[in-house]
Structures are given as structure tokens and as C-alpha cells.
Design brief:
32 strands, 10-stranded mixed beta sheet, disordered C terminus, 9-stranded antiparallel beta sheet
């Protein structure tokens, strides 16, 4: 038997890490982490300083009747938070205003809710800092009813107002301008008076561009969007832009001839004024006046606007204004001295000259008996709240008159402030002509 000698295992010395290589690895990893932190911090700081947003000032005011926010009636102007549900009832009108509190409460947009309309204020955002590069964003959902939208001029940054109907149709407004939206259970219609709107049917990513004097219509039953001619404004300078910024007494305002009644003492005044993101015409009379006065603006058609021979089958008078002050109750003792009156001079079917009046007032003391219409007025004057923008739309002019008194030719359109002391701002007076179905025809 042979003796087998087993060699003891070799002792392997442990491998030693090169300390220089380890140091370089740690340094490189630390540097990579540092660079990542710098990049992330830089992106975060850049986003915070130039792109981050904060809530924008949002308030609801009632111009006429009543309105509610989150099932609560609104009286005085009320600040709103996100996800607020807003609704108007019959014969009511409300204004949803968005302002930039960081720029002296600059107006960004006004949304007018006509009667029986509703929406949800999803969000309204403004840049965190004035030097930020981002724009203004307003998101309104569940819209139902009729709306007018004004996006202010000269904002100096991008703006986006998005309105989504209950059926999912999207209206995207990205330009200063004036728009109207009308929704029903089966359609959404957008009319662009100024600016440009994008109308996108439900569940689609693209739609149609609605340029000025056009209208876009989405039929939600077949999800099709079509572009049609809109409405034409038959008056010049309806927004009072084409005028000297410092209007003087007796000046012609490019289409409008303004004046005071010759016997007025003291005399009223009229002047252009940029207010709430739009040019306005201000009619005022103070100086403690206790006698009748009138400040008026008139635009005439030569030889007359013949409605019967026009290519349009629909005509309406539209005015947007705000009553700041009046000293008389209602429209005076005879109902003829409203702080704002609209007047149409026309010829009826017998060729006889006729005049239509309609007035608005903001003071009503029930302890003082005052008539609600003038002797020549076919309708009662309308009460609106002070210092709130209100838009009046006559609807079809043919429906305002008995069949034998309907206008055949319009001679002129006038608006005026009257009474003792008054102060009114007007931002729009327009005579609209267009094509609609099932309207009352002249004659």
C-alpha cells in the first residue's frame, strides 16, 4: 500500500482594489449625479420662473335677473373657484370675467351667459410671474345655452379659451376678438365677428377654422362640422375703434354723428375710452344738472336700407353697454328719459315714417311712481344692474312689429343718453343682417 501525500491547498492572497481607480470612479459617479441635479434643477427653475402658472382672477356678476354658482344665488360680484357650476334662468344675463391680478387687474376675457345657459369653470390660469413666457388659459366645460365671448385686445401674450359642450364638441379661441356660441341637444354653432375660432366635433382631433363673418356648425348626430356664411354688420364703426382717441364735441366718429340737444345747459359730453379690453364711447352729463338733456349718436342710410329687396331674411339690432350712473328714477316722469335709449327710424309698408324706441335703466325706486314705457314705445323699458356689461339683442326686427307696421326700409339708427345726469359706456351698436330658417318675412 503506497502512501499518498496530499498537498495542502494554496493560500491565495486577496486581490487589492486600485485606490486610484476607485477614487476616479467615485468622482465620476458624483460628477454625473451633480450634472443630473443641475439639469433637473435648471429645468425646474426655468419651468418655475418662465412657464409655471397660478389661478387667474375669476368673478361672476349678474347684469339682469338672477344667476347662480354652485346652486347659490349670486347678487354682488362673486369670486369663483375651479369646478364652479354657473347657471342663468329665464330673462337673465350674467358676466363671467377673467382678470390678471398681477397686471392691475387687466381684463383677459368676458363670457356673457344669456338666459337659460350653464357651464362649469374647469380652470383659469395666468403666468406666475410677469416675465413668464406662458400665456393665459381658460377651460370651460359642460356649456349649454347661448354665450357671447370677448377676448381683450393688446394682452401682450398668448391666450387660449376652450369651451366644451355637453356632447363633447370643442371650441378653441386663441385670438383677441368677439364670438357667439349657441348650443342645443343636437348642434353647436360658433359665429365669429372678430378673431378666429377652431370648432372640433366630439371625439375628433381636428375640425374647421371659423374666420370673421362666418359660422361653423357641428351636428352631433353625425359628427360633421360645416362652415357657412355668418352675419353681416350693416353699420360702420360698430365698435367705435375708428375714431380719434380724444373725441371733441361736434366731431364725426367715422359713421356716427354725435351731438347734444341745442337747448341743453349744461351740455353733455361724449368721448372715446379704452375700457375692459375694448374701445368704448362714453356719454355723460353731470354738473348737478336738474333739467332735461340728451347726448345722441346717429348713423343714417342713404337713400335707405331696403329690407324687402335685401338678400337677407333676418335683421336684428344689437348693443353692448354699461350704465354707470343716472339721477332720475327709471326713465323719468314720462318714461322718455332713459340713461340709454335705442331708436330705429324706418318706413313701413305704406311708406309712412315710423320710429321705434327701446330704453334701459339701472335705478328703480318703488316709492316713486314712474312709467315703464314712453308714449311712443311698443315695449317696456328694461332694468339692468349698474356697472355690469349687458348685451341687448332684439331678435328678428320683423317680429317686433304688428304685420301692418313692419319696417320695409330703415332710414337710421340712433342711440342716446337722456335725463338730468347720466353716465353710460357703449362698446357696440350693430345692425345684423343674415340668413336663417323660419323667420318672419317683411310684408
Amino acid at each position: 500500500m503506497s502512501n499518498t501525500i496530499i498537498a495542502p491547498p494554496k493560500n491565495h492572497a486577496p486581490q487589492r482594489t486600485d485606490p486610484q481607480r476607485l477614487a476616479w470612479g467615485v468622482l465620476l459617479i458624483a460628477f454625473a449625479i451633480f450634472c443630473a441635479i443641475c439639469v433637473i434643477t435648471g429645468i425646474g427653475v426655468n419651468f418655475f420662473l418662465f412657464q409655471s402658472t397660478i389661478p387667474m382672477g375669476s368673478s361672476l356678476s349678474v347684469a339682469r335677473g338672477s344667476a347662480g354658482a354652485n346652486e347659490q344665488l349670486v347678487g354682488a360680484p362673486t369670486s369663483l373657484s375651479f369646478n364652479a357650476d354657473i347657471r342663468t334662468v329665464a330673462q337673465s344675463q350674467a358676466i363671467l370675467a377673467f382678470t390678471d391680478e398681477g397686471v392691475n387687474n387687466q381684463l383677459i376675457a368676458l363670457i356673457t351667459l344669456k338666459e337659460n345657459s350653464s357651464l362649469r369653470l374647469q380652470s383659469a390660469l395666468r403666468p406666475r410671474f410677469n416675465w413668464s413666457t406662458t400665456g393665459y388659459e381658460v377651460d370651460l366645460t359642460r356649456i349649454s345655452g347661448r354665450f357671447d365671448i370677448l377676448i381683450a385686445e393688446g394682452l401682450g401674450r398668448d391666450v387660449s379659451v376652450r369651451l366644451t359642450s355637453r356632447q363633447g364638441a370643442l371650441v378653441n379661441l386663441k385670438n383677441s376678438g368677439r364670438y357667439s356660441i349657441d348650443t342645443s341637444d343636437t348642434s353647436v354653432r360658433v359665429v365669429t365677428r372678430e378673431g378666429e375660432a377652431i370648432l372640433i366635433p366630439p371625439n375628433l382631433e381636428y375640425g374647421i377654422a371659423v374666420s370673421p363673418q362666418n359660422q361653423g356648425i357641428v351636428d352631433t348626430s353625425d359628427n360633421q362640422a360645416v362652415l357657412k356664411p355668418g352675419y353681416s354688420n350693416l353699420l360702420r364703426n360698430s365698435y367705435f375703434r375708428m375714431m380719434n382717441p380724444n373725441v371733441t364735441i361736434g366731431a364725426e366718429l367715422d359713421g356716427w354723428v354725435c351731438a347734444n340737444d341745442t337747448a341743453d345747459n349744461p351740455r353733455g359730453s361724449y368721448r372715446s375710452q379704452f375700457m375692459d379690453g375694448m374701445m368704448t364711447l362714453r356719454l355723460e352729463r353731470y354738473e348737478g344738472a336738474t333739467s332735461h338733456g340728451r347726448t345722441s349718436c346717429l348713423q343714417t342710410f342713404q337713400p335707405g336700407l331696403n329690407l324687402a329687396e335685401s338678400s337677407y331674411n333676418y335683421f336684428a339690432l344689437r348693443a353692448t353697454f354699461r350704465i354707470h350712473y343716472q339721477s332720475l328714477n327709471v326713465c323719468g316722469f314720462t318714461g322718455s328719459e332713459c340713461p340709454l335709449m335705442l331708436r330705429i327710424d324706418y318706413l313701413d309698408q305704406n311708406g309712412e315714417a315710423k320710429t321705434w324706441f327701446h330704453g334701459f335703466y339701472a335705478e328703480s325706486n318703488p316709492q316713486i311712481e314712474s312709467p315703464l314705457r314712453c308714449d311712443s314705445c311698443a315695449q317696456e323699458h328694461e332694468f339692468i344692474n349698474k356697472d355690469i356689461w349687458y348685451t341687448y339683442d332684439s331678435g328678428s326686427l320683423f317680429a317686433l312689429f304688428p304685420p301692418d307696421q313692419r319696417p320695409v326700409s330703415i332710414i337710421g339708427i340712433m342711440f342716446y343718453a337722456s335725463g338730468h345726469q347720466y353716465d353710460v359706456q357703449i362698446s357696440e351698436v350693430a345692425l345684423i343682417g343674415g340668413h336663417v330658417d323660419e323667420v318672419i318675412q317683411p310684408g
